[in-house]
Amino acid sequence: MSFVQDLSSSPDSAALIDFSPEASSLAIRGLSLAYGDKPALRDLTLRIPRHRVTAFIGPSGCGKSTLLRVFNRLHDLNDEVVRTGEVRLEGEEIHGPAVAVAELRRRVGMVFQAPNPFPMSIHDNVAFGLRLQGGLSKRKQDDIIEWALRSAALWDEVKDRLRASAWSLSGGQQQRLVIARTLAVGPEVLLLDEPASALDPISTLKIEELIRNLKTHLTLVLVTHNMQQAARVSDYTAFLQDGELVEYGPTDTLFTNPRLRRTENYITGRMA
Amino acid sequence: MRLAKRSRARLPRGEGAGAWLAAGSVALSLLALLALLSLLAIRGLGHFWPASIALVALDDGRQLAGEQVREVPLPDGTGRERLYRIGNRDLDGTRWAWVPVSAIAAVSHPPELMVLERHRWGEAIGRLVAVESETGERLEGQAARAVLENRMTELASLRQARDTLRDEVVLPRVQALQEGGDVERELATANARLRELQAAMQAGHLTLETASGERWQVPLDQILRVRYPNAMSPLDKLVVWGEGVWRFLSEGPRAANTAGGVWPAIFGTVLMVMLMSILVTPFGVLAAIYLNEVAHQGRLTRLVRIAVRNLAGVPSIVYGVFGLGVFVYGIGGSLDEWFFDAALPSPTFGTGGLLWASLTLALLTLPVVIVATEEGLARIPDQQREGALALGATRLEMLTRVVLPMATPAMLTGVILAVARAAGEVAPLMLVGVAKLAPQVPVDADFPFLHLERKFMHLGYHIFDAAFHGGDVQAAMPLVYATALLLVLVILVLNLTAIFLRHHLSTRHGALSRR
Ligand SMILES: Nc1ncnc2c1ncn2[C@@H]1O[C@H](COP(=O)(O)OP(=O)(O)O)[C@@H](O)[C@H]1O
Ligand SMILES: [Mg+2]
């Protein structure tokens, strides 16, 4: 790809690829984060390409979720968290004083590991974010809800029971509902934290297909502990260990021809 | 909540001693509850049954007439004795007669025996001899019965007219007069009419012959109801019983709380509990939200939480003392100085009343609501909160749209527990506003309709007062049982209402319970 720099030009950098600022959605520079005095992220620098799927892999506890939560400032609630470094969304520092958190979170949507639909009807779940913004006519709102449910490949399954409780759906359907709910507020970036790890194989495949379809207009960041999944759906993969970015590159390269021993050991399952 | 219910491990059915023990103790507690309720029901509700009146002839030739209450062995074990309720307290000085069974020559139930329910002194028992009208006209036999019946109906409507006049015309004007209104003329007319009615009621008396043969004149206006129990069919008795129960529920007390009904006490209890719920719910819920959602979860918060939990164990009388000192004398006294100084030195809010009692009980039940709500909040998965935040909700929106609806059943559980605790509390109320007798209920047609400063009656205190402060404990006992039964039922109804509300709210959230 044209925007991938010549790798040989940065031999000792962990970030093996560097997208041009114009092609990247999120740009992270020197990001470190600690829970109290316990470091969780150490000096991360990387760019995440627009309208691509970027996967974060790494052993449990390496900081994948922590990193994802930085992107939509979910850490704000935790007074313990100490963070340094920059995170820019489309060139703008997300922690800047002029940034409204609610607005940022609408631009950077997040889907969690366990499906977390609200105890409301399917319709109301998708309408939740829209109602927070307000100012939408009922018709417009219903149009957006239908569009979001279609985008999440759920419309056909629920169109006849939009008033049914969201909790009456299966786990896989619930996760797609949560994705629809997030899509409805019109995000640019969608963060997915192990979105399929609690689902059965068929539901997992549906989610993966959905992820591939969504990248036409969204930047997707996927955390997964499932290497095959990362290989199947992502364009780029970053390997984290102990809060450090170990290796980052096109998924094909990283899985078939990792540069570093640590990466290879993890991918082939020879973990220390 | 529901999650807990689902994951609760069940003992294998029909296996092991554990299952039997558990089932046994459940059965035992149910039985105990049932026994308690039936004791209260039999002792209390039996009182309204118009029992037959026995005419007892004794060996020595004396006679007495009364309702047999019970028969017990003599203390020396040589036989048995019976207790009769013979009425005529103003004549004999007692209402009860103990008779050894061995001394009884004959017992009969003559149909003409009459029971008069009177305004004071309890019932009178005997034979009707004659009815004399105000003009000196004297009727005997069947004619006397008929005229007595007419006169009773007449008296009932006169009483009604008098009460209406008093409550709706005279009392409001007296109040208006005190406040400087110009209503003296109206009041004078009303008073004249009241005197007329009073005079119309005072006409005539009847002559009664007691079992011992004494003749006795009873003024007709003293008589509330006339019955001939021995001549009544079971259906008649049932009707009388129903009327008795209804009067018990709908009328005010008479004769220093040893007779009459308990309506003001029912009303006071329910009103006080509802006010208490209205006061305690917002405070409790806000406190729980603060502790669980807002406050930094540090040592101080933990300390506060422990303190709140311990408050639940403070004896209720301590809250009563606190309410008396702080609410009644402190806040109430200041309110009087600022706003009701015209009425001083007689206190308005500076004395016990509905508001202070409700506040005191709200304080008493606050920990219960806080703890229950906090537990509900703690059970809501953080993912729900983060899900809302991730959609761009502010913390307030997250709280009001996701967290609070999910915590509503827990909140209502807290209120249910609070109601259960508050409705049965008597001790603190004695310090902060319950009254032995409060003829005016705290709600009426006068602005502002709900009179928070008024004293009120309470079923629990009514039980205490009737059982220990009446002149004739024997006579008050059935009413004590009936009132106790009523108190249990009122608490039950209050609880069921809250449970119904909780169920209604949680089914609105549909599958919340299915998960
Ligand atoms: N809220 C928190 N408070 C303190 N430590 C945390 C918190 N969340 C995560 N951690 C710690 O930070 C490290 C990274 O966690 P996480 O980002 O969840 O890892 P991953 O998602 O890769 O499994 C772990 O050591 C974890 O114990
Ligand atoms: Mg994680």
TrEMBL record, chain A:
One Pfam family this sequence matches: ABC_tran
A GO BP entry: phosphate ion transmembrane transport
GO cellular component, one term: membrane
InterPro entries noted in UniProt: AAA+_ATPase, ABC_transporter-like_ATP-bd, ABC_transporter-like_CS, P-loop_NTPase, PstB-like
Any one GO molecular function term: ATP hydrolysis activity
Stored CDD domains: ABC_PstB_phosphate_transporter
UniProt KW Cell membrane keyword: yes
ABC transporter domain span: 26-267
SUPFAM superfamilies: P-loop containing nucleoside triphosphate hydrolases
Keywords tagged on the record: ATP-binding, Cell inner membrane, Cell membrane, Membrane, Nucleotide-binding, Phosphate transport, Translocase, Transport
PANTHER family linked to this entry: ABC TRANSPORTER I FAMILY MEMBER 17 (PTHR43423), IRON EXPORT ATP-BINDING PROTEIN FETA-RELATED (PTHR43423:SF12)
Name of the protein this chain belongs to: Phosphate transport system ATP-binding protein
UniProtKB/TrEMBL annotation, chain B:
Species the sequence originates in: Halomonas fontilapidosi
Domain ABC transmembrane type-1: 266-498
GO molecular function: phosphate transmembrane transporter activity
Coiled-coil residues: 148-200
NCBIfam families linked to this entry: 3a0107s02c
Entry's Gene Ontology BP terms: phosphate ion transmembrane transport
Domain of life: Bacteria
Family indicated by similarity: Belongs to the binding-protein-dependent transport system permease family. CysTW subfamily.
Record-linked PANTHER family: PHOSPHATE TRANSPORT SYSTEM PERMEASE PROTEIN PSTA, PHOSPHATE TRANSPORT SYSTEM PERMEASE PROTEIN PSTA-RELATED
One Pfam family, short name: BPD_transp_1
Membrane-topology descriptor: Multi-pass membrane protein
UniProt keyword terms in alphabetical order: Cell membrane, Coiled coil, Membrane, Transmembrane, Transmembrane helix, Transport
Protein name (Swiss-Prot/TrEMBL): Phosphate transport system permease protein PstA
TM stretches of this protein: 262-291, 311-332, 352-372, 402-423, 479-501
Gene Ontology cellular component terms for the protein in this record: plasma membrane
Entry's localization field: Cell inner membrane; Cell membrane
